[in-house]
Amino acid sequence: MIQRISAGTLKTISQGFPIVAVTGPRQSGKSTLVKDVFPDKPYITFDDLDRLESAKADPKRFLSQFDKGAVIDEAQRFPDIFSYLKLIVDASKVPGMFIITGSQQFGLISHITESLAGRAGFVQLLPFSLPELISADKLPGLDSLLYQGMYPPLYDRNVSAKIWFAGYVTTYLERDVRDMLNIRELSAFQRFLRMCAARTGQLLNVSGLAGDCGISMQTARGWLSILEASYIVFLLQPHFSNFGKRLVKSPKLYFYDTGLAAWLLNIQDAEHLSIHPSRGALFENLIITELLKQRFNRGSVSNLYFWRDNSGNEIDLLIDNGAELVPVEIKSGETLNDDYFKTLYKWNKITGRETPSYLIYGGNESHKRNSVNVIPWRSLPLI
After folding, report:
1. CA-CA distance, 190 to 365, in Å (whole number)?
2. Is the predicted pLDDT of residue 106 greater than 90, yes or no?
3. Same domain, 170 and 263
């Protein structure tokens, strides 16, 4: 088993809350993680229809079997259970009593905030991170990593990425879509998903996306919400600090895993990806997602933004640490050139001060140029 960084965070949170919720995309390793961290707790999943029907028929009797708590997987499939869990944990006041997991972000969180406010801590588990693969000596080369992505089954099974993602989209995505919305033509939704992949790293234009897919803007917004709720895509919001220039206010679209995006782009293998026009966007996606995993693995929420004004000045990533804004430029090339640094120097002029900044690139050497820390993709620091 590849050890997960978030295991320590999960243990810590379980000491302070009676309920811990672990969310993340399907097949990101949630069940494996909670079974490893809480081996003595009974494990049940509401993907098992018999278990689900038993819980629905008599919730009190069902939960009475677990007087010392349990792990409940895909808990959002039975929302009423949260009210019963509230009664149990309020009476027992035992920390870490119930561990609940779910792959539908908004559904699980909304039910928790309604019924379990103040009683639940959260951990968001994404697919493997770079440090996790490095520690297990399983990190492939850059192009192979972008093509394969980081979903755990691709690292513990003898299966090709092409075959696995085909099954993933059919078996998991389409089932989640049916659960959340009554979409009759799943082929239209899959076309929408592929059009989203073609826009990886771009400003989101919902009107243009809807037009290209032949659907209404309302439908496009609804489908985007489904992809967000299922941890397939996320929207990187612009930072609204105003330095005297008009700022772009549309978010950028990214995927939580580059392998899924590459499959949706019909990229055939790592060699094909190395010359594909989307390689730079996928590399940018990789780095931003890795920095997002750093936050999630520590139990924190995202503090990542981008910055762009209407004059064409743009910072790929802006990390808001509260006390300061840390600019990050992301370049997929292996060879440094002066153009890579221009936007970071321009940022210093716009802000009126020289702040520590980062250039993350596709090469292997670390060094510092003026105030810019040059970082290879394998060695991302905690920022």
Report:
1. 40
2. no
3. yes
- Predicted TM-score (pTM) of the model is 0.93
Looking at residue 86, which CATH number applies to its domain?
3.40.50.300
Give 30-51 pLDDT, tens digit per residue: 999 999 999 999 999 998 999 9
Which one, of 271, 293, 303, lies nearest residue 150 by Cα? 293
Instruction: Tell me the residue type at 109.
Output: I
User: Is 258 domain-assigned?
Assistant: yes
Dump strand ranges (E) for the chain.
19-23, 43-45, 70-73, 98-102, 120-124, 233-236, 252-255, 304-308, 314-320, 325-331, 357-361, 367-369, 372-376
257-299 confidence digits (pLDDT tens)? 999 999 999 999 999 999 999 999 999 999 999 999 999 999 9
Distance CA 267, CA 147 (A): 8
89: domain range? 6-124
Q: Does residue 155 register a pLDDT over 80?
A: yes
DSSP state of 79: T
Per the model's pLDDT, the better-predicted residue between 117 and 230 turns out to be: 230
Kindly state the greatest CA–CA separation across the chain: 68
Q: How many domains does the chain have?
A: 2
